[in-house]
Write a structure and sequence with these properties.
The chain is mainly alpha-helical. The protein is about 60% helix and about 5% strand. The protein is built from 46 helices and ten strands. The strands form two sheets. Strands 1, 2, 3, 4 and 5 form a five-stranded mixed β-sheet that branches. Strands 6, 7, 8, 9 and 10 form a five-stranded mixed β-sheet that branches.
Length: about 1000
């Protein structure tokens, strides 16, 4: 007996076995009909192994209840004794409600799952014909068809057959069904049958031996008169037989339907005669057929009716199929057809469309068929109607890279398995991934995803769809296809017009210039040209996946011109792996990284090293910079070396950021944008600190040798001190010094000022490297105050004159270069200012709020949209940072976690201390990260800093790609930015202004 309020052990066991309604399952297990099964220990295990244990149990109860009482004991005994039968039956019941309905209606059909002989594991057409042999009309044919389907589904869900074998079995069952339907039609009209020869040609997936559970079965009918019969009357008789065959399979009866038989792929489609003679077919194909009709014929296979006539039809049309690639406009026709299919998908369904959407099954099929048609003229090994067989043949023949083929094969199998399981549930024709959580859970479990079925399913689906989309484009847009497809046999040269069309389709705005680059890169017989000819089709696909393909191709040409004769660069290209894709991403994502790379093209080597994109720490960078400074002959050479290191590290950081934002074949896009922001901020801060340390060493050595007359330190402020620098940020600093023992203070101050002046000059010298601007405006008295102060002078000023905004600015103060002991004493000096004992007084809080309000009204650039300005706009960086800093100044004296220069770290500490609720903290963090990424994106794309979204459409699209928005979704990006920052501003109004 279960204690009231406590759950039974059965309830817990049911939960552990995957039941989502354990209470309902308990009630079902208690029905009298399951008395013989209830105590069986393996039953729950078997149910728990199914895709949907609740569904399987409901189906089992219905099946047991449907058994005649005389048969029930036999059924239950068999279920308990035979594990293969138990797994098959329960597997089907847990995956298909429709087949459970069939079993409840035909309760003895479970017996078809009991036999487990070798022939049962892989039946062919003959075995299925035997299974349908007793069908004498449409109703009995449906019952027999479902019984055969039951066995196919059982082998499928138990893993006895893989997805390709299941599809082949379904096609074989369809073949047997068409034969049985034709036999029924002939029996019903013996006069018509005696007058004509009729062959049924399977097309589409049935013809390709890769049918779905529920799909139209595409056919073409070929008819001929028997010897001595009138052709017209014979064709009329054949048409009546063909029409009856279609009705037998398609019409709804008391046992439902089988599948629609679709003859619309015939010449002239639905406007043409249902049945034609062989000569009429050939006349049409030779004179009128369009490209898509030859593509469809690639899968033609004679399956029923007169075998000799069917074989003659296949022999006659096959040569026409393989000549189709020589037709004018062949490749554009195929592309146009693919685009038309995608364009016809309702917008609301595109993301759920498994077959026709981007990255769907049709992408694989189109790409494979296109390559078959192009190369099949000269290679009969490609003449297969089965997608996976054809893909394997393309890989074996070198037409597709083996790695690409393996990834496409894996993705196609996964997507087809999804399609099979979706259709199997209700035996309905659909290619839409369900939205309901329970349906997704069952689907995921049916594919072996058991830990978190819904999340794992979505992840795997998106991953495979992304692979298909990328590889489909890589194959489909290969410019060489036009050349191979459109020229006379033996002559392979891309016509400028065709190449221009191809490049325009890839998104190139200046195809003529792109053609010149391609010619320069790929012409000639050198090893370099040969490698680039191999790589270019791949690169073109990657460039096309960016917002600026033209820039990508131009950048690649420049890098190749600079490095083309170096052996390691050619090896890097030949790899056609991560390095090539990383290079394509970097060159086509904006102006900054190509500019950095082209100043020193050898940095491209970083893209081929798995460790090459990881940031190097401050210690490593300082060691390298100071060593380079030590080797230099003078200060200018020394800082040139330091700036060269900075440029290389900027490139490393930006490349890693872009690749993490875009994702590649080998590594998916970084899911946490905050992690990307933190890595960029830390890396740029470290490399700027190392560069300043190098400039300081160079300036001191040039005039004073090893030791300056005064101890000297550089304190980072603003984003520099906060480790939050972007690509275009200045370095905000304070300079502090302390005369060495015995040195006059005025002499020490002059020396310190000369060092600062020399550092700033060296870091801004006109060179090919980006300058590093040092900004000391946050010093006491601002621009009016001395550039350098002694520690005593800082102490005197802060003690007597310091304003609240200066204390706020000091929240970001952190040692960056120079004398560390002096810098640490400076930090000790300012800690009581930035974290005042007992917190801020009300007057100080009011002053901070007044300053913030004034800044909002005065500093926003004229004409700027306040809802889109990343720094000063609504919910932007300033809003979040001032809110966090106010909390730091009020509570930092008692909360050690708040004593940090980093905004996100302080925000996390405020949340941990209970000073900001969870939702508000997440809102502020999301807005701050997004605004920071917008600024980084603008710099990466335009090559110069900016705080607002670009107005140029191509630049705006590039910012969108960096932020994770696909082409055509920039409006959604801007809307999301406004929504996120609007919510952040509401939090700021509450926490900062006390609204």
């Amino acid at each position: 007996m279960t204690v009231p309020g406590r759950r039974s052990s059965t309830f817990s066991r049911l939960l552990r076995h995957g039941f989502t309604d354990p209470s309902g399952a308990e009630r079902l297990l208690d029905v009298p009909e399951l008395s013989a099964l209830r105590g069986d220990p393996v039953l729950l295990d078997a149910l728990g192994a199914t895709a949907d244990p609740d569904l399987a149990l409901r189906g089992l109860v219905r099946l047991v209840e449907a058994q005649p009482e005389t048969e029930r004991q036999t059924f239950t005994a068999t279920l308990l004794a035979a594990k293969p039968f138990r797994d098959r039956l329960l597997g089907v019941l847990g995956a298909s409600e429709a087949l459970a309905d069939h079993l409840a209606k035909h309760p003895r059909d479970w017996e078809s799952l009991v036999t487990y002989e070798a022939v049962d594991l892989h039946p062919g057409v003959a075995e299925f014909e035997q299974g349908l042999a007793e069908a004498v009309d449409a109703v009995s044919l449906r019952v027999a068809y479902r019984r055969c389907l039951l066995a196919i589904a059982a082998r499928d869900v138990c893993g006895t057959t893989d997805v390709a074998e299941t599809a082949a079995e379904l096609a074989d069952l369809a073949t047997a069904t068409l034969r049985a339907a034709l036999a029924i039609a002939r029996t019903a009209a013996p006069v018509d049958a005696a007058m004509c020869r009729l062959a049924v040609i399977a097309m589409g997936k049935c013809g390709g031996h890769e049918l779905n559970y529920v799909s139209d079965v595409d056919v073409i009918f070929v008819g001929e008169p028997v010897e001595g019969a009138d052709e017209g009357k014979a064709l009329q008789a054949a048409t009546r037989l063909a029409s009856h065959l279609m009705r037998i399979c398609s019409e709804t009866t008391v046992e439902g339907t089988i599948w629609p038989v679709d003859a619309n792929l015939r010449p002239e489609g639905r406007n043409g005669p249902l049945v034609r003679t062989l000569s009429s077919h050939l006349a049409y194909y030779q004179r009128w057929a369009k490209t898509w009709e030859f593509q469809a014929l690639l899968k033609a296979r004679a399956v029923a009716g007169d075998p000799e006539l069917g074989a003659h039809y296949i022999d006659a049309v096959s040569p026409l199929v393989w000549q189709a690639a020589e037709r004018e406009n062949f490749v554009p026709d195929v592309q146009k057809m693919r685009r038309r299919v995608v364009d016809n998908i309702p917008a609301a369904q595109v993301e759920r469309e498994l077959k026709l959407g981007p990255g769907g099954l049709r992408d694989v099929e189109f790409a494979v068929q296109l390559l078959q048609l192009v190369h099949g003229r000269s290679d009969a090994g490609l003449h297969s109607g089965t997608t996976l067989d054809a893909l394997a043949a393309l890989a074996a023949g070198g037409y597709v890279g083996r790695a690409d083929a393996a990834q496409l094969d894996e993705a196609y199998r996964f997507l087809r398995a999804m399609e099979h399981r979706i259709q199997l549930y209700r035996l309905r024709r659909t290619h839409l991934v369900p939205e309901d959580e329970a349906d997704l859970r069952r689907l995921g479990r049916s594919l072996g995803l058991r830990t978190d079925p819904v999340a794992e399913l979505n992840k795997e689906w998106k991953r495979h769809a992304a692979v298909v989309r990328r590889l489909h484009e890589k194959l489909f847009y290969r410019p060489l296809l036009d050349a191979v497809a459109q020229l006379a046999p033996g002559e392979i040269r891309l016509s400028p017009k065709a190449a221009g069309q191809r490049l325009e389709a890839l998104g190139y705005e200046d195809p003529a210039a792109a053609l010149r680059h391609l010619e320069a890169l790929a012409s000639g017989v050198s090893r370099k040209a040969a490698i680039q000819r191999t790589l270019l089709p791949v690169l073109l696909g990657w460039f096309a996946d960016s917002a600026d393909p033209d820039a990508g191709l131009l950048g690649f040409r420049k890098v190749s011109d600079a490095l083309g004769k170096t052996p390691w660069y050619l090896r890097l290209l030949r790899d056609e792996g991560a390095a090539a894709e990383n290079l394509a991403r970097v060159l086509s994502a904006g102006r900054l990284t190509p500019d950095l790379l082209l100043r020193a093209p050898e940095a491209v080597a970083l893209l081929g090293d798995p460790e090459g994109l990881k940031p190097r720490g401050l210690d490593h960078l300082q060691q390298e910079v100071l060593a380079a400074v030590g080797r230099a002959d003078d200060a200018e050479q020394a800082v040139a070396a330091a700036r060269g290191v900075r440029r290389r590290e900027l490139f490393r950081t930006a490349a890693a950021d872009l690749i993490g934002s875009y994702g590649t074949e080998d590594s998916p896009r970084e899911p946490d944008p905050g992690a990307l922001v933190d890595r960029v901020g830390e890396a740029v801060t470290d490399l700027n600190a190392a560069t300043i340390a190098g400039a300081l060493r160079a300036a001191v050595r040039a005039e004073w040798g090893d030791e300056l007359p005064t101890r000297f330190a550089v304190i980072g402020m603003g984003r520099f001190g906060g480790h939050e620098l972007g690509y275009g940020s200045d370095a905000d600093v304070l300079f502090v010094h302390e005369p060495r023992e015995g040195v006059d203070e005025q002499e020490a101050t002059r020396a310190a000022n000369r060092v600062v002046a020399e550092m700033r000059r060296l870091l801004q010298l006109p060179t090919t490297d980006p300058p590093l601007l040092i900004d000391a405006d946050l010093r006491p008295e601002g621009k009016s105050g001395p550039l350098v102060r002694t520690l005593k002078s800082y102490a005197a000023y802060y003690h007597r004159w310091s304003l609240v905004w200066e204390s706020q600015a000091l929240l970001r103060a952190e040692p960056m270069a120079g004398d560390r002991e002096l810098a640490d004493r400076f930090i000790e000096l300012v800690d009581p200012l930035r974290y005042p004992a007992e917190g801020l007084g009300e007057d100080a809080v009011r002053e901070i709020r007044r300053l913030k309000a004034r800044m909002e009204s005065e500093r926003l650039p004229r004409g700027a949209d306040p809802t889109l300005h990343a720094k000063l706009g609504r919910g932007g960086l300033s809003d979040v940072e001032w809110t966090v800093q106010l909390i730091q100044m009020r509570h930092g004296w008692v909360e050690p976690g708040l004593r940090t220069t980093r905004t996100r770290e302080a925000l996390g500490a405020a949340h941990a201390a209970g000073l900001i609720p969870t939702e508000e903290a997440q809102t502020l963090d999301e807005a701050w990260v997004l605004a920071t990424r917008v600024r980084n994106a603008v710099m990466l794309v335009r090559g110069r800093p900016g705080d607002t979204f670009p107005s140029d459409p191509r630049e705006l699209a590039a910012v969108g790609r960096y932020l994770g928005y696909e082409s055509g979704h920039v409006g959604e990006m801007v809307d999301d930015y406004r929504r996120i920052t609007r919510r952040a501003r509401a939090v700021v109004e509450e926490l900062f202004y006390g609204a």
